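pinned: reference chain
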Amino acid sequence: MNIALIAHDKKKSDMIQFAIAYCDILVDHTLYATGTTGLRVKEATGLPIHRFQSGPLGGDQQIGALIADNAMDLVLFFRDPLTAQPHEPDVSALIRLCDVYAIPLATNMGTAEILVRNLNKGTFDFRDVAKNGGTNETT
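pinned: its structure tokens
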């Protein structure tokens, strides 16, 4: 599965703690992240991560492009709801794309834990169906 990791500045430490706690699950998947978040998670865990630009410089949009191409399976976006973000329209667009393409989205550690634990149990098989145009064939 392709997993995106994004965290606002005040939530980066939460993302790092989360990635350390679930490193044994995340290692089996392809990870993508916005710039600084990806760097910090990689430094803390040693996980291979494809890094895009930072969020305000277009990283959110780069991940959004993968969502629109049906190439992302899960988005973990630890948002800071108490701080105004200068790139809020990009954040809203990313969340909207997750809704449009039925991509599971966690915006906090609690929801991320539920999703990642279920990912580990294999309950994301619906993504294989979505990637194959509505059939359950994995060619």
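why pinned: Residues 132 and 139 are 9 Å apart (CA to CA). The chain is about 50% helix and 15% strand.
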